Amino acid sequence: MSARPMWVSTRAELRGKRHRRAHSCWDHLIVAPLWPKYGVNLGTLLRTCDAVGACLAVPHRPWIREALAKGNTLRTPSCIHWVNDPLTWLTTQRKDSDVVGVELTDESIRLVELRPARRRTVVVLGHESDGIPPDATALLDTAVEIPMLGTGLSLNVAVAGSLVAYRLAGLI
């Protein structure tokens, strides 16, 4: 018995199914790596944000603008929110958003239990080594744990943020 050949879409067909132009701000889902350590992760997250229809919120630091420019492989600009003070910004976001942090806490839910966002949601990502600071953890509505079988304690920020963003966008 021979297998049916799989249909592979051409680049032109794929392009026709996607947005014709970049958004100025989808603002339903915001991925917020507010304490970044590595610039390469920011470029990856920017690409993921475009893929899931999210915006990226980053602290306003000189090296971050350069990291985003270097890592942005998209031809059109993406939706970026610049944050001066992460704790103040998060406090403001809580007024009209669900705040979900990727962090190990006693109350963390597993990624598989996370449901797609039904209202404006901010995904908070911490520092590569130190996680989300305690003052910011207190501002989370939900903490999400990404289960791991290996010896590492966590995934890098770009991978963790991408998994949670896809889940909240309802794409996985």
Automatic annotation (TrEMBL):
Any one Gene Ontology BP term: methylation
Stored Gene3D superfamilies: 3.40.1280.10
Molecular-function annotations in GO: methyltransferase activity
Entry keywords, A to Z: Methyltransferase, Transferase
Coiled-coil segments on the chain, per record: none
Domain named tRNA/rRNA methyltransferase SpoU type: residues: 36-166
UniProt-listed PANTHER family: RRNA METHYLTRANSFERASE 3, RRNA METHYLTRANSFERASE 3, MITOCHONDRIAL
Entry protein name: TrmH family RNA methyltransferase
Originating organism: Actinophytocola glycyrrhizae
